[in-house]
Amino acid sequence: MLKRKFYDTLLAWKQRKPQTCLLVKGARQIGKTYIIGKFGEENYRSYIYINFIEMPQTKDIFNGELSAESIYSRITLVLPESKYIENDTLIFLDEIQECPNARTALKFLAQDKRYDVIASGSLLGIRYKEVTSIPVGYEEPVEMYSLDFEEYLWAAGYDNAKIDALHEYFDKKEKVPDAIHEKMMSLLREYIAIGGMPAVVDHFMETHHYGEAHNLQEMILSSYYDDISKYAAQTEKPKVKNAYLSIPKQLAKENKKFQFSVVEKKATARKYENSIEWLRDASLARMIHNVTAPDFPLTAYEKDNQYKLYISDIGLLTALYGFDMKKVVIDNTLKGNAKGGIYENLILDMLSKRGYRLSYYRTENGSLEIEFLISQDAQIIPIEVKGNSSTISLNSLLEKPDIPFGYKLISGNVGVNGKKIVLPLYMAIFI
């Protein structure tokens, strides 16, 4: 059984005595249904589960009057075993994107306040236009991700005490003992190959079979392609899939800015912009923008037409390159631009799962490029992802008096040089 941080998010929501319904967003097969179900069964005397894909007849519950009383009554017609215990019942509406009326009804369920309600969906971003009325102020949106590296360490048998001990080296900016450092780098490369999709992690921890893990990843990717075929507009289907499959090629370029010509010769933004939006809204890809200046607030300086796209789970990116990529990653023999792209996607994975909204900075002539910029306490922190090479761009940016420090993430150990903090790649989970 995989331990997930999201369980604590659910507990915190319950303990706040919610005045809103919780709306859990995220890509398919990241474990939303499992963790919400576990939470419901362990924290409520009554737990009512409705899945609009598995039980299409439940959509009828939300036809007609949408008062809370009417909805609760109609639930008992479809699920006669349902039990309502005031202040101790959780109703979980899963795959809510399949029932737009249920999304509208969240307002009335939140106003009723007798029972807690959680809704979850995998493609909410691409189906919001089908909802008659978005219940603004009555739903609390929160995004869930596949396992982050810390959760992966838990699955591999590393408890909080061991991770806290590692955190001390980060806090004190002290060198990690070589044996521990090498082990952590080995586990990080394993995470790059396996990723954080729960079914893949669970099976790998039981079997340690890379071939079977890869097969599971390919099955997940196939289900994503099925979603594209099912939910994308007819004219967009091939473009969405081609744009998604181009991401590994985009990240293997020296300039990793997304270029439409990589998707299709002579392709234009106008032709593919809806496809890119679809991938982002379906949580299959993550987008970060270039900024005109590395200044606060970063959103004010974003260039709408210059961005990078990353795969939302690092293991799925590795799988898209093919099974042989796993061997060179694990053996640490990967070289070239593809290595840079994979490690960039890794750090994007790690930082975005910590809640950071990321940007990047590249000058027009390419003379200065910083892989990631984040905001902390209204200050900009640059982050470079390097092997053990020089950091001319980071050094240049750290000359700005308003930038307090920056991180250089490498395969080597901890070090500090003026405003530059050098960290091993795995310590991105502590930033």
Number of strands: 13
Please provide the ordered H/E string of secondary-structure elements: HEHEHEHEHEHHHHHHHHEEHHHEEEHEEE
Q: Give the overall shape.
A: globular
The number of domains: 2
Beta-strand residue fraction: 15-25%
Biggest sheet features:
8 strands, mixed
Distance between the termini: 27 Å
**What class, by secondary structure content?**
alpha/beta
Percent helix range: 40-55%
Count of helical segments? 17
What strand line-up does the widest sheet have? 7-6-8-9-10-11-13-12
Compute the gyration radius: what is it?
23 Å
Mean pLDDT: 95
The poorly predicted ranges are none
Give a description of the structure.
The protein is an alpha/beta fold and 431 residues long. It has two domains: 6-143, P-loop containing nucleotide triphosphate hydrolases (Rossmann fold), CATH 3.40.50; 149-430, no CATH class. It has helices at 6-15, 32-43, 68-78, 100-112, 124-127, 149-155, 160-172, 178-194, 198-207, 210-231, 237-251, 260-263, 269-281, 314-320, 324-330, 337-352, 392-397; strands at 21-25, 46-51, 89-94, 116-121, 139-143, 285-291, 302-311, 359-362, 369-376, 379-385, 406-410, 415-417, 420-424. The strands form two sheets. It has an eight-stranded mixed beta sheet with strand order 7-6-8-9-10-11-13-12. It has a five-stranded parallel beta sheet with strand order 2-3-4-1-5, sandwiched between helices. Helix 8 packs antiparallel against helix 15, helix 9 packs antiparallel against helix 10 (210-231) and helix 10 packs antiparallel against helix 11. The radius of gyration is 23 Å and the shape is globular. The model has no long low-confidence stretch (mean pLDDT 95).
